[in-house]
Give the backbone structure.
Amino acid sequence: MQGKMDDDRSPILERTFLMPDGASKRTKHPIAGCSFSPTMTQLATGCQDMSVSLWHFKPSKRAFKYVGHRGAVTDVAFSPTGSLLASASVDKTVRLWIPTVQGESSAIKGHSGAVRSVAFFPDGRRLLTGSDDKTLKLWSVAAQKFVATFSGHNHWVRSVCVSPDGRMAASGGDDNQVRVWDINAASVEVRPGERRPARLLSTYYDHTGIVTSVAFHPNGTCVAAGSDDKSIRLWDLRMNQLLQHYDAHDARVTQVSFHPSGNWMLSSSLDGTTKVWDVNEGYGTYILGGQEQGVTSCTFSPSGDYFATGGADQTVMVWKTRFSSAPAPSPLPDPARSRETAGTALLKGTSLRRPLVDRGTNQQQAREDEVQCPPPKMDGTSHGFEVPAFTAPALPMGEGTGGPEALQSMVLQMDAVSAATQILQERSSATENRMEIMVEKNRALEEHNRRLEESLAGVQTLLAQFMDQTSKNFQTLSDRLAFATAPVPPPPPPPMAAEPLTAAAPAAPPAAPPAAPPAAPPAPPTVVDPPAAEAPAAEGVGEEEEEEELLRQLEAHQAKTREIQAQLRTRSEVAM
């Protein structure tokens, strides 16, 4: 592969940023990750000196350096709105920074190993991280809380990325594998606080070395990966097969990044070069140098007009992407030079399989030719229509049957069939999800009914016990009332005292009558008090008060009984 540095469309260097005192330090810390802000006013970089730097494109503004991590920074990423900056570190945390002068930040903890990669979702509300604990984790940005875990890798996870539609995630690690995950499966909440496990869509074992970087194609149908084996591979997610293979560099490939148009791919390597690849034709177009100690990261800007590279020498270079304004090459090679191009590509280790953009030069028309169908809903409902019918375009007959027109027609048919197959697979997956949700809901409903029956039986038992006790209390009060209201018999009269019988004494002889004493005045009559009549009256009043008190107690008890019965009846009705 020859570099086209003399081409008028080749990238040109616009700016170079150097870490403070980087040139004078004896030990230099490589740049780890670059990310453009969506407004194209700032560029964020991470460094292994535990800092995050924010560079301004206006020369009048100074750079910011954020310090907060307790270990080397491994990756950085701006949110889609640019209001937050995420950084990953070997201190097992992810920090969310507000990109201002103050640089306020908050730490997210949950991994048990170093965090190697971080990526925002397109909506900016979720965050994906990969770690040395062999897992990927999904986070809520607003709540800064853990949502789901993706387990399956056998070694450290080096890189993660999210598809443009936010429905899939890809990861690569030290187990030489590239895995593609279904994010929607992990977003379904079966019960409060409990979510379904993540679903693995596919695994690719083509690399023979550590996978250092993964990236989705802008149309979401392909995923690319760079590796320690010095190669780059692209897989078609629709056909689930290897699409392209590049023997790209002479040392480890550190990062890959797609241009927003999908026509170009950027790769960096520890061999000190950055290369631009034409993914439609399947070969390299430009080789960029300037960072001899190794290029550790690279990324395109959101608009694709610029790209940045970070080096092991603590320098950050910003390049002008002039080739993005050039007309896109023909998606199918010219028949006159197809054999020569294919032979050259194979000698360089590049497989020219079906190109990524294979529906003609007009991409808008190609998107209109696709079978359009909204994604399946995950809440148990459907869109209410069947898979649209597809009519394959007729193959040209006669002389042009074997020409580019026939090949392109066949490619269109294959794309339409693969799109319909993908739709069916998605709907089948959605149906399975709905069935699982229904089974879980039925199980929860049965458990709820069982608990209601147990509660009702308990209420009925308590009601029977209370009624029995109430009947006993009522009988006791009735007996007491009957005893209190019974007439009291009059007391028996006291017995008459009998006079003792004595023997009569013999009569004495009559004596001479004594002299009569002088007459005394008559004594006043003795007044005898009649028996008191108040005692019976007082006894009758006490009995009446006791009867009234017992009646009041009985009425109060009956009222309380009625109130408790009403409460128990209400609880029984609610339980039923």
